[in-house]
Specification:
Helix content: 25-40%
CATH topology of the largest domain: Penicillin V Acylase, Chain A
Number of domains: 2
Strand content: 15-25%
Largest sheet: 9 strands, mixed
Radius of gyration: 21 Å
Oligomer: single chain
Distance between the termini: 35 Å
Number of helices: 15
CATH architecture of the largest domain: 4-Layer Sandwich
């Protein structure tokens, strides 16, 4: 079997040298007790479905074992992106995971995180003899979305003058119900905006049955305990998504990591109030988001704008909430962001305007098909024309002649990388519809883009094409 080695220039993976090979996911002699009931299905339209069940350690072990090749791969990508963008070596983040985050992670999720490391190492796929991925690599991987917040705070506390780290803008999303939807019931949808380098790997569908709490169906990265981008529904009919608050600053290193609270909220919420309570408790400000939530049973929708200092919850039984990285609360804008609400050429504001247009134009007609259509939208409200760029709901930052702060280098090879949508009927069946790549059907060609933009040569060894896949319905295993 051919093996290949990727050298990450200037990076040392804590003395670990990893090899990757396209090995099978299951091996003879697999530990039956840990893998009992778990399985992985063949790729479908760009997505890989995995079913995990059992105790926290079992669920983690199954994640690590079944997705070992993908976890090794995404860890390389995460190390490359995180160290390049934050100008810190990987050991800095491993140390922060151990000393800053670990004391604030409860036992249930400690066991699951350890299980992921154990599962990858038990599989051993592609690894050089004696090499291992350890717990701190796994915790640091799970916290990937929080590191830019932490580094800004760390540098401020230590008097380090560093280049400003703009908070990456992630995602476009909406939730609607009542007079805005075709059947009067909930519809919710989301697309993930991120660098193509990690986004083209954001293609796992997790079906998780924990021994405590709710069953969950969610998208995610391999090796994570939460969705991370986020789109998740649980067996109580709660559907959760979010968009990042743009230009946000603030972080509390003595509080609970966002990835832990997000997973706990998905696993234990039976209402919008449950969700808000869990997310607010121990809030560290990391990955500060405007969360959109639907309670399909009550036909109620909510919006939780979760800053560090300023938190606001709204709810409706008739209406909509939209998200595209714009902050809402005036006090939050003033105290926790440097966001310019008046710049309508900015991506977040232009997309906000487009959401408002679409909600008004489609009132009473919004259904799953409309949601899928919205996520493929290429109308630029600043230019007042169709033009796939950083200001459209289906973001194509790579096609924009401007880039879009904060999507300037090193962030510029980015855009919408995958999409999810559901309605009340699908939620009742614990199902949702998903499309990998751009919802518009446009493929991303990595080699062409790197040739045109040599400033991204640092990505080329790990960059790959991102093909657009058909909308596909995924349902929990029977």
């Amino acid at each position: 079997m051919r093996r290949w080695f990727v050298v990450l220039a200037g990076l040392v993976l804590t003395g670990i040298v990893l090899w990757f090979s396209p090995a099978a996911s299951l091996r003879a002699g697999a530990p039956e007790a840990e893998l009992n009931g778990a399985f992985r299905r063949p790729e479908k339209n760009g997505w890989t479905f995995v079913h995990l069940q059992g105790t926290p350690h079992q669920i983690g072990f199954q994640n690590g074992y079944l997705l070992a090749p993908e976890i090794e791969d995404i860890l390389r990508v995460t190390i490359l992106e995180t160290t390049h963008d934050n100008k810190k070596d990987w050991q800095f983040f491993r140390d922060a995971a151990q000393k800053m985050m670990w004391p604030h992670i409860e036992q249930e999720y400690r066991e699951e995180l350890q299980g992921i490391a154990d599962g990858v190492n038990a599989h051993g796929v592609g690894m050089k003899p004696g090499a291992k991925i350890d717990l701190w690599d796994v915790v640091a991987l799970n916290a990937a979305e929080e590191w830019s917040y932490y580094v800004k705070e760390y540098d401020r506390m230590h008097g380090i003058k560093a280049a400003s780290l703009a908070t990456p803008e992630h995602c476009s999303a909406f939730v609607a119900t009542g007079s805005y939807t075709k059947d009067g019931k909930i519809v919710i949808a989301h697309n993930n905006w991120t660098n193509y380098l990690d986004g083209e790997r954001w293609t796992i569908i997790f079906d998780i049955v924990p021994d405590k709490g709710k069953r969950m169906l969610m998208d995610g990265l391999p090796g994570v305990i939460h969705s991370a981008d986020d789109f998740v529904e649980n067996s109580s009919g709660i559907v959760i998504t979010e968009t990042t608050i743009g230009h946000f600053f603030g972080y509390d290193p003595d509080a609970i990591p966002e990835f832990v609270r997000a997973r706990k909220a998905a696993q234990y919420s039976a209402s919008i109030d449950d969700f808000a309570r869990i997310m607010k408790e121990g809030n560290n400000g990391g990955y500060a988001n405007t969360w959109l939530v639907a309670d399909a049973g009550k036909n109620e929708i909510g919006e939780l704008e979760l800053g560090l200092k300023n938190v606001a919850l709204k709810r409706k039984t008739d209406g909509y909430f939209v998200g595209s990285n714009f902050p809402i609360n005036e006090k939050l804008i003033r105290e926790e962001t440097d966001f310019d609400v008046h710049d309508m050429s900015a991506s977040a504001n232009a997309r906000h305007a487009r959401w408002e247009q679409l909600m008004a134009e489609n009132k009473g007609k919004i259904d799953l098909a409309a949601a899928e259509r919205f996520l493929a939208d290429h109308y630029d409200t600043f230019e007042n024309k169709e033009d796939a760029d950083e200001r459209t709901l289906d973001g194509h930052i790579d096609l924009s002649p401007r880039g879009s702060e904060p999507w300037q280098p090193p962030f510029g090879m980015a855009g919408a990388v995958q999409n999810k949508a559901t309605d009340a009927k699908l939620t009742a069946e614990m199902s949702f519809s998903a499309a990998a790549g751009h919802a518009c059907g446009m493929d991303f060609k990595a080699a062409d883009h790197v040739r045109a933009h040599p400033e991204f040569a640092w990505q080329k060894d790990l960059q790959r094409d991102m093909k657009a896949g058909a909308w596909t319905t995924f349902t929990v295993a029977k």
